[in-house]
Design a protein that fits this description.
The chain is an alpha/beta fold and 623 residues long. It folds into four domains: 7-211, Rossmann fold (3-Layer(aba) Sandwich); 220-380, TPP-binding domain (Rossmann fold); 388-577, Rossmann fold, CATH 3.40.50.970; 593-623, no CATH class. The protein has 23 helices and 23 strands.
Length: 623
């Protein structure tokens, strides 16, 4: 590379890598690189130019070779979640199918408001060799390609058609990923030829930059209006979402709730805002919640929603609350703060809670209201204790969750995603330390579990190398995406993977049955098969990828296996069969809107439709 006094000649790919390597952030007083590295699978769209640049910076920006582009994106999302959105990783994929494999993980990051940078190959800008391998042609629009599909799942999107463009695009992409309101994935399409083109970049562009995440003060009038409304409350309640952790506002939330004697319930994303035994913690709310939280939600008159987008699993499709209940929504994003006629407080949760507390003065809710909420929580704890007890029925998710909960260390991280396990973990896990639970239910994405565990473990190993990352996964999600067992072994990022085999997609089979339908195409035994159904040997499969593994026949064996997994120096997979019909958590469920047939020849479906629709009577109509 040639340099002059005020410029440096680099390829576009080299400039991207050099710029990323010089971005820093201070976390808990320690200056760190903003980009923790990346995940990559090379192809003709990214190996020769971007690959060359990444090789020269492999110490500053470590590159982890993925097994599947989609799982790379899941790992990057889990990494940023574990880092509370203060750091991100990039994913690089080749042009064509390598890039389109990232669409699902980009959607997951978008839904969950998580930063992830995608550096993806694109068609030749000159079009001289068109059409090239893996290129889609649109006859009336030659500039349209598969990378345009990412516009729907990216917070920032650009196609770099000239090397100079990165001077504008890279800072804008990073600003988006660090913005509390607009946080999400950023996509840069990198045409194969332009990656290798050179430009004389100003040296100032590559100077070290230390970032900070902006904290926006809420409008003082909004704070005053919120305080005035909250002072009228006889039965106030706080919904604590994932944004509480991203704002690092757990202490402020706890102090606010205790000062003003307001019970707190948690969303799925906010599941570890409070410890399980905190007296103000009334439990998880919503469709997969707790009787305790849902009972007080139905009685609350003013509800303060902090850092939550009020997804349907939180609101019970807006049936979980009294229709006359009034909402105050504290959120960095205006879009989320104004949902369903909420009084919006647009700003940082940490700052807003302090300001709102000061404005409230001596206001507290009645001790009888808090006592009622705590009584409900005590009853829920008793239910959970029985629900997770080994021997209370056939092998179940809840029993396995209870065993792991009893034997893990407080700072071990829990990862779960789609299927029945998010509900079971949300309902039955007793939080031992703040910020230790990652239940991915923003996009409810099968396949996140093991890949997300790998990404979370990479993040965890940077600061808490002696703690474990535990992954709860069903047999369905395991079969969908499991190759990062191999990744975790290769990279020395140990996981404890708990495979709970119920013979198919059992939770959707349960929904199918609950809506009056016959079991069909969910459990393996109910699919169109050419042979008798048989169970996969998950133990042997995991062992073939280098992991330690064993199969437990019952909860007692599961507990002993878990102890061995804790002692293991590499990824350990424990498999146990669970019953697909019995052992589900039966309590704690709010109503959930599901599309059911309005006309049918099946009497059981018709009856189920009528019964399901009867739950709509309390649905809050909003905008």
């Amino acid at each position: 590379m040639n340099t002059q006094s005020d410029t440096i000649t680099l390829t576009m790919a080299q400039a991207i890598v050099k710029y990323l390597a010089n971005q820093f952030i201070v976390i808990d007083g320690v200056e760190q690189r903003l980009c923790g590295g990346g995940f990559g699978i090379f192809g003709h769209g990214n190996v020769s130019c971007l690959g060359e640049a990444l090789y020269d910076s492999r110490e500053e920006l470590p590159l982890y070779r993925g097994q599947n582009e989609q799982s790379m994106g899941f790992a990057a999302a889990a990494y940023s979640k574990a880092k509370l959105r203060q750091k991100f990783m990039f994913c690089t994929a080749s042009a064509g199918p390598g890039t389109t494999n990232l669409l699902t993980s980009a959607a997951l990051a978008h839904a969950n408001r998580l930063p992830m940078l995608m550096l993806c190959g694109d068609a030749f800008q000159t079009r001289l060799p068109d059409p090239v391998l893996q290129q889609l042609e649109h006859y009336g629009n030659p500039s349209l390609g598969v990378n345009d599909a990412f516009k729907a799942v990216s917070r920032y999107w650009d196609r770099i058609t000239h090397p100079a463009q990165v001077i504008q695009s890279l800072p804008n992409a990073i600003a988006t990923m660090l913005d509390p309101a607009d946080c999400g994935p950023a996509f840069l399409g990198l045409p194969q030829d332009v990656q290798g083109w050179t430009y004389d970049y100003p040296v100032e562009f590559f100077e070290k930059k230390v970032h900070r995440i902006r904290r926006q003060h809420a409008d003082t009038q909004d704070i005053s209006d919120a305080a005035a409304l909250l002072k009228t409350a006889e039965r106030p309640m706080i919904i604590a979402g994932g944004g509480v952790q991203y704002s690092r506002a757990v202490e402020e939330l706890t102090a606010f709730a205790k000062t003003h004697n307001i019970p707190v319930v948690e969303t799925i994303a906010g599941r570890a805002n409070l410890l399980a035994d905190d007296p103000i913690n009334i439990g998880p709310i919503g469709v997969t919640g707790s009787n305790s939280a849902n009972t007080i939600a139905a009685k609350a008159d003013v509800i303060v929603a902090v850092g939550t987008r009020l997804q349907d699993f939180t609101t019970g499709s807006w049936t979980a609350f009294d229709k006359k209940a009034q909402f105050i929504s504290i959120n960095a994003a205006r879009h989320d703060a104004g949902k369903h006629r909420s009084l919006p407080v647009v700003g940082d949760a940490k700052l807003a809670l302090v300001a709102l507390g000061a404005e409230l003065g001596e206001y507290t809710s009645s001790q009888s209201w808090m006592a009622e909420a705590q009584g409900e929580r005590k009853a829920w704890d008793a239910y959970v204790a029985e629900n997770i007890r080994p021997g209370n029925g056939p092998n179940s998710y809840a029993q396995a969750i209870g065993i792991a909960n009893d034997l893990c260390d407080p700072r071990d991280r829990v990862v779960a995603a789609a299927g029945g396990l998010p509900a079971e973990v949300t309902a039955n896990w007793r939080t031992l330390d703040i910020g230790t639970v990652d239940v991915e239910f923003g996009f409810s994405c099968m396949g996140y579990e093991i890949a997300g565990g790998w990404g979370a473990r990479i993040a965890q190993s940077e600061t808490e190398p002696d703690n474990d990352t535990m992954v709860f996964v069903g047999d369905g999600s395991y079969l969908l995406m499991n190759s990062d067992i191999y990744s975790s072994v290769l990279t020395g990022k140990k996981l404890i993977i708990l495979v709970l085999d119920n013979g198919g997609f059992a939770v959707i089979n349960k929904l199918q049955n609950n809506t009056g339908n016959t079991s069909f195409n969910n459990l393996i035994e109910d699919c169109k098969l050419a042979v008798e159904p048989f169970a996969v040997d998950f133990e042997a499969h995991a062992r073939s990828m280098g992991a330690n593994s064993e199969t437990a026949a019952n909860p007692a064996e599961f507990a002993e296996a878990f102890k061995r997994a804790k002692d293991s120096d590499k990824t350990y997979v424990i498999c146990m069969k669970v019953d697909p019909y019995e052992g589900w958590t039966q309590e704690g469920h709010a109503w959930w809107e599901v599309g059911t047939p309005h006309i049918t020849n099946n009497e059981s479906v018709r009856e189920a439709h009528i019964e399901w629709e009867s739950g709509r009577f309390n649905q809050r109509k909003g905008v």
